[in-house]
Known about the structure:
- The chain has three domains: 2-33; 50-98, no CATH class; 108-145, no CATH class.
- The protein starts with a helix and ends with a helix.
- The chain is 54% helix and 0% strand.
- It is an all-alpha fold and 145 residues long.
- The model is unreliable at 116-120 and 134-141 (pLDDT under 50).
Amino acid sequence: MAGALTLVARGRPMKRVCNVLGVARSNLIHRRYRSTRWQDGRRHRPTDDGALIDEIKPPIVHLPSSGYRQVWRLLRRERMHRGAAPLNAKRVYRVMRITVYCCNANRSYPVLIVGTKDGLPLPAAISAGVRMALSFVATMASRCA
């Protein structure tokens, strides 16, 4: 996109530049005429999740196998009764993932050892007995067959 803006700024016809580079003309026009002080508002948003972490801890302590959706549902109900603003499920998931409250790390999957069509074993990690997701191994086996 920066290359297209440079070419247009140097006097090249916008339609030709957009057609050659495969860029939408509407997007290029928007970027060309926007303010020089423009800043993307989606980046670097400061988030203070300390209060949310304190809200998440009691349901996790009470039932450690709770997933983020169950925790989100409980917090949403509590907040509705208090009259507070509802939470976003994605925010609850992000905070639980960052603070290691999500319990996906301890799952183990069965190992399936399969050879390739040439009679050669799959990568050494699989044939050494490393635990891998069955779907990954099945995908690898179908690619090799």
